[in-house]
Design brief:
Layout (H helix, E strand, L loop, with lengths): L5 H13 L5 E6 L3 H14 L3 E3 L8 H13 L5 E5 L5 H7 L17 E7 L2 E8 L4
Parallel strand pairs: 1-2, 1-3
Antiparallel strand pairs: 4-5
Helix pairs in contact: 1-2, 3-4
Amino acid sequence: MRPLSERGAGQAADLVGLLAEFPVQRILSSPFVRCLQTVAPLAASRALEVKPHPALAEGGGRDAARLVRSLAGEDSGAGVVVCSHGDVIPEVLLSVDAIAVEPGRRRCQKGSTWVVESVHGGLVATRYLPPPS
């Protein structure tokens, strides 16, 4: 039930510009307040609804990894933003190691973003975006 700090709210607002180049058509989030608040400005800017997903909650690492892989397998060309927690993201990144996330690059700073790209249903690249200032 902890809301975002003032800094976190600013970083959430900055996600709108950070993700401007991506064709986001869906937003999934942990049902926890902080994650929902993190993606709210992005959702508002794109006129999208944030869909809470239990697999993205704290402790949901394996379930979240399966979810991300299934989203990549949809091959719809639609960008999906997934918001989760620092204990979940490393497990998701391990699941995409088949595409060689650089060693030591599994950073999960609060407010950071990982872009995971897929082509024809297969995960092909990852890119780390540090937290907005």
